[in-house]
Amino acid sequence: MHDHPTHETLDRFLRGQLPAVEGARVIAHLLRGCRSCQAAAADLAGPLFEEGEPEDFGSEEGAVYEVDFDRAFAAARPAAAAHQEETLLADEIYAALVVEGHTAIHRASHLHRVPVCRALMRRSWELRHEDPTQMLQLADLAVFTASRLDPEQVGAVRGAELRARALAEYGNAQRITGDLSGAERSVEQALALYQGNDQDPLLGAHLQSIRAVLFGDQRRFAEALDLLEKVEQTYEEFGERDQQGRALVQRGIYTGYRGDAAEGVRLLRSALALIDEAADPKLALTAVHNLAWALYECGQLRDARVLVWENRERYDRHAERTMLLKRTWVEGNIAAGLGDLERAVERLSDAIQGFEEAELGYQAALAALDLGAVWLRQGRAHAASELVEHAAETFVAIGVGREALGALALLQQACEQENVTATFVHHVSAFLRRLEHDPSARFNQQ
């Protein structure tokens, strides 16, 4: 379990179907006070107690069940306590890391323990949104810890798997902090360790999912999509619905980047049916946000508007500033598509201002093109031409590629000749938005 136990894991735990170690982890997680998982467990437990009549608990069969259940808890409690202890130790290590730095911590002999390594990886993952730098430091410490585990105590295969997992988490942290070449080296090292030992399919799927996201950041979408399809199949086979949903989210996003918005819609809707929002609200929001854009891009404007409206509280709770600005941007484009031009002007203007304040010049220029198209529809041709020309100059100053420059030259020529249309401006904007993610895209003048 990376963060929270899945819906299926909780159900199997309550039915006594989990191995002792996994059961211990669930107990430790619940004891640490995770309210969303406690509530989910309570919801699942209710129907279980309703399945039999009350008098069944006085029968011999009921007595045996109670004894077995008690034994299971008795066996799990020591492991759960140990898991809690190691997690608290990981938090102490994290605090010491912030205060003392790596040098002092690397001398600590008590780090050389499997649960500490796992706890460090888990804590690193939890920090991915709020503090990527600390995420990277803790993942580095997990690699250090894994490399110093005693092979005689943990076993050669288990030790290799832990080193592979730690290296992959470190590579993922490198990716998030912008070091794509370093991330590729770390992930390849992790895969080499994994492939050299008895192979756990779920670990393999986890490593390949990290590799696929790295491919996505490198704009290698065809390779990323091939990997993600295999990863999704593995997770589906093992009943890992949340992880299957995560793979589907990435497939949906990358499919959209390659220009197939309709297939992106299908994949993202499938993902939302699998994701446990209580366990990973930010993943659910990522799926919703990208689905809204995909719906807009394939012309399902009313569905897109309803989706954004129904999820406004989810955005307010979990979205970071850039995502909130992109929500405002897509709201403006949806309004324009539905003919609500005044609202479109309001939302697009807000988005442009926000992007400029956040120093996101490319996005600000894209939204300016969209606003220019709306102004043209309102009959404000002169103001629209000035805005579009200024946006085009911004793109050139940023240093876009040859294909983008060709599209922008045609746009500037149309403005100079005073025959620019809202449809053409919108077409150029849509192309540049795709080009941001897919450098292989080509401009079609229609």
Show the helix and strand layout.
Elements: H1 7-14, H2 20-31, H3 35-50, H4 60-100, H5 102-106, H6 114-126, H7 132-147, H8 151-154, H9 156-176, H10 180-195, H11 201-217, H12 221-237, H13 241-257, H14 261-272, H15 281-297, H16 301-310, H17 312-318, H18 321-337, H19 341-357, H20 361-377, H21 381-398, H22 402-416, H23 422-437
Helix pairs in contact: 1-3, 2-4, 4-6, 6-7, 6-9, 7-9, 9-10, 9-11, 10-11, 11-12, 12-13, 13-14, 13-15, 14-15, 15-16, 15-18, 16-18, 18-19, 19-20, 20-21, 20-23, 21-22, 22-23
Q: How would you concisely characterize the structure shown here?
A:
The chain has about 450 residues and is mainly alpha-helical.
Give an account of the 3D structure.
With 446 residues, this protein is mainly α. Among the domains are: 1-100, Orthogonal Bundle (Arc Repressor Mutant, subunit A); 320-446, Serine Threonine Protein Phosphatase 5, Tetratricopeptide repeat. Helices cover 78% and strands 0% of the residues. The chain has 23 helices and no strands. Helix 9 runs parallel beside helix 11 (201-217) and helix 15 (281-297) runs antiparallel to helix 16. The longest helix has 41 residues, at 60-100. The two termini are 50 Å apart. The relative contact order is 0.05. Residues 49-76 have low confidence and may be disordered.
